[in-house]
UniProtKB/TrEMBL annotation:
Pfam families cross-referenced by the UniProt entry: 2OG-FeII_Oxy_2
Residues covered by the Fe2OG dioxygenase domain: 101-202
Superkingdom of origin organism: Bacteria
EC number(s) stated in the UniProt entry for this protein: 1.14.11.33
Keyword Iron: yes
Alphabetic keyword roster: Dioxygenase, Iron, Metal-binding, Oxidoreductase
Statement: the UniProt record of this protein carries the keyword rRNA-binding: no
UniProt xrefs under Gene3D superfamilies: Alpha-ketoglutarate-dependent dioxygenase AlkB-like
Enzyme class: oxidoreductase
Protein name from the UniProt record: Alkylated DNA repair protein (DNA oxidative demethylase)
Length: 203
């Protein structure tokens, strides 16, 4: 396979099965306090196929009226986001390579037919900090490109327990999730994939 672009630090099977199960219990608590909701595209209001929630001081969201942004409260309940579980802070400490703690953890839930189009992550004021991604449940086909939408892309699979750290110039690469491979993991009680994305938002 092709080597990954500079700035992508891939840790396959970083979490063993017991660690994935323990982390999943923490995420179930987060979702109990801050339910998954369906985000909408700015202006069109078209629903995303991925359902989302957050933990941490700030959460990323999008809706028709106000578009992409970070805010301190859940868009449906109006409550503050729950705290980031300690296990996630520990993972950030050990492989994130950033001395300050993450401020936001986006929880993405992909059902068997969900996907995420090619995009850049640029809603954070601090683009120097890395982004750390953890995959749980079914595998997906992930795609990473260059710094313009039409640049060539490379695809690879992300599997349950994999950790990906995006730093340096790669922080602004286009990326997306082309498809889920339903039934490739027994971690979740049903089909689907959870991705946790830890970020700093403010300088
Ligand atoms: C590569 N999520 O929430 S995380 C997102 O699997 C998002 O749910 C995907 O993209 C998911 O914004 C991918 C991995 C990721 C995150 C940021 C990146 C890959 C990246 C930034 C640059 C290049
Ligand atoms: Fe992204």
């Amino acid at each position: 396979p092709d080597s990954l672009p500079e700035g992508l630090d891939f840790h396959p099977a970083f979490l063993d099965r017991a660690e994935q199960e323990a982390l999943l219990l923490d995420i179930r608590d987060v979702v109990a306090a801050a339910p998954l909701y369906t985000p909408e595209m700015p202006r069109s209001g078209k629903p995303l196929s991925v359902r989302m929630t957050n933990c941490g001081r700030l959460g990323w969201l999008t809706d028709r009226q106000r578009g992409y942004r970070y805010q301190e409260t859940h868009p449906v309940t109006g409550k503050a986001w729950p705290a980031i579980p300690r296990k996630l802070l520990d993972i950030w400490q050990s492989v994130g390579g950033c001395d300050r703690p993450p401020e936001a953890c986006l929880v993405n839930y992909y059902g068997p037919d969900a996907k995420m189009g090619l995009h850049q992550d640029r809603d954070e004021t601090d683009l120097s900090a890395p982004v750390l991604s953890i995959s749980l449940g079914d595998s997906c086909l992930f795609r990473v490109g260059g710094f313009e939408r039409n640049a060539p892309t490379r695809s690879f699979r992300l599997e349950s327990g994999d950790v990906l750290v995006l730093g340096g110039e790669s922080r602004l690469r286009f990326h997306g999730v082309d498809r889920i491979y339903p039934g490739t993991s027994t971690l979740l009680k049903s089909e689907g994939r959870i991705n946790l994305t830890l970020r700093r938002v403010t300088p």
